[in-house]
Amino acid sequence: MNWTVYLSGEIHTDWRAEIANGTRARGLPVTFCAPVTDHAASDDCGVILMGAEPDKFWHDRKGAQLNAIRTRTLIEKADIVVVRFGEKYKQWNAAFDAGMAAALGKPLIILHQDEHAHALKEVDAAALAVAKRPAKVVEILEYTISGTLPESS
Fold first, then answer.
1. Residues in CB range of 87: below 8 A, 6 or more apart
2. Radius of gyration over alpha carbons of the chain, in Å?
């Protein structure tokens, strides 16, 4: 079986590549998908594709609606959803994705540092695993997919 893993959340670090490289190195049958991670494209897609908006609210709304087509479709098709909350920015969209995944009954892995533990306690409670590092997510995926513990644990 090939597993589809949706990688949601923070777009300012290379955590997605770390997970993809780690699973590839372990030979795991995983296909990854994600939201649009080009910040400018994600913000401006609505007005570029559907016409300018003088009001920032409608500018943002058009973009959010177009991005939701991708996000909803990919989360619905995913076998596992990983959501990362970064240190610097508040990722409200990531919290929404985690809630959507939980509502759909998708296995959810949350990735964040200790400083966000209190703020994310409800999100963490909905998850089946919470990790601090992308390498730990790779180990969780390895165990989930192969049923064996990784040597690095």
1. 113, 115, 116
2. 16
Q: What residues pair up with 109 in beta bridges, in sequence order?
A: 82, 129
Domains annotated on the chain, with CATH: 3-37+77-146 (3.40.50.450)
Distance CA 143, CA 10 (A): 25
- Enumerate residue ranges in the chain where pLDDT < 70: 89, 152-153
User: What local confidence, expressed as pLDDT, does residue 151 receive?
Assistant: 75
Please state, in angstroms and as integers, the Cα–Cα distance from residue 149 to each residue in 26, 77, 136, 143, 152, following that order: 12, 26, 12, 5, 9
Q: State the distance between the two ends of the chain, measured CA to CA, in whole angstroms.
A: 24
Both structure tokens of 55: 């009001």
Location of structure tokens 């390895």: 142
